[in-house]
Design a protein that fits this description.
By secondary structure, the chain is of the alpha+beta class. It is about 35% helix and about 25% strand. The strands form two sheets. Strands 2, 3, 4, 6, 9, 10, 11 and 13 form an eight-stranded mixed sheet that branches. A five-stranded antiparallel sheet has the order 1-5-12-7-8, with no helix packed on it. Pfam families: PAAT-like.
């Protein structure tokens, strides 16, 4: 646990003089059987220190959000235990991705206040946000415990979404519809990459971005038009055969062989044309990507 580093932020005010919220969070090794309760199956040991409890207050109508930022990307949180006066909590992952809503079990009643606990299973890295909906103005948070473990495989990504997102926020520039869709896609793609799953084949992010920007569609229209022409051509032969008409003068005697050869030639032309278009598109996109990376490198 020595290498697990994190920061804590809270949207509500606290009664602590030093403002240190990290003392409220304790850690446990997810692979250590001693962390599990011997009395209650599926639950973990969580000892509360009354000296480290805090009271959270706010005059705002916004619910309290307790955010834990994990600075070591090779660590993951597999389970969390929360003891507070809130009967319902909501959990969110990186970039505000909703994970779950959990209803707490009653732990005890103390001085006209009921204390609840929840211990949901999670699988997150980078960030874990805990929201306390339904709590108004003030409540006590008694402790949070995280079971953490090292990621089984290193995370691979061609970009740091957190850094890009931070730059977009600080720039205060309006985003176009295409840029917003690309940002949402990158957020999802970053979440998929952080799962650490051993996928047999991962999608090429540059190709996916091209599809997202709808750049393939207009370039495939000539191919679609050619396909419709072939369909109309074959349909004309079918109509002639159904009506007992003879093929037009100059038409091949073996209609099937002629159509097969025509389709084969068309497929070859389509393949060559499509390959050239995709190569040219990929070259332009790579040039754009290189320019963007150069700008980001200059600003860092």
């Amino acid at each position: 646990m020595d290498n697990f580093e994190f920061e804590v932020k809270c949207s509500w005010q606290t009664n602590t003089s030093d403002g240190d919220l990290s003392k409220l969070v304790s850690l446990g090794d997810a692979d250590d059987p001693a962390e599990m309760s011997t009395e209650y199956k599926g639950e973990i040991r969580h000892v509360i220190d009354e000296n480290d409890t805090i009271q959270l207050t706010s005059d705002s109508d916004e619910p309290c959000t307790f955010k834990i930022l994990i600075t070591n990307s090779d660590w993951r949180v597999s389970k969390v235990s929360i003891v507070s006066e809130a009967s319902i909590i909501e959990l969110y992952g990186p970039h505000g991705e909703y994970l779950m809503t959990s209803r707490g079990g009653e732990l005890c009643s103390k001085e006209e206040a009921t204390i609840f606990y929840v211990q949901p299973d999670v699988n997150v890295s980078h960030e874990l946000s805990i929201k306390f909906p339904g709590v108004e103005k003030s409540f006590w948070l008694y402790g949070i415990k995280l079971l953490v473990k090292k990621s089984e495989s290193p995370q691979t990504s061609i970009f740091d979404y957190d850094h890009v997102d931070e730059m977009l926020k600080t720039s205060r520039l309006p985003l176009t519809d295409k840029a917003l869709r690309a940002k949402q896609f990158l957020q999802k793609y970053s979440s998929w990459s952080s799962l650490g799953e051993n996928l047999q084949k991962q999608a090429d992010p540059k190709i996916l971005l091209k599809m997202l920007e709808s750049e393939y569609r207009p370039r495939l229209r000539p191919v679609e038009e050619a396909g419709r022409n072939v369909s109309q051509y074959i349909a004309s032969f079918v109509q002639q055969a159904a009506g007992g008409e003879k093929p037009a003068e100059g038409s091949p005697a073996d209609v099937r062989a002629y159509v097969d050869e025509s389709v084969r030639q068309l497929e070859e032309r389509m393949e060559v044309s499509l390959r050239l278009q995709l190569d040219a598109l990929e070259k332009r996109q790579n040039e754009k990507l290189d320019a963007i990376l150069q700008i980001l490198a200059n600003k860092c």
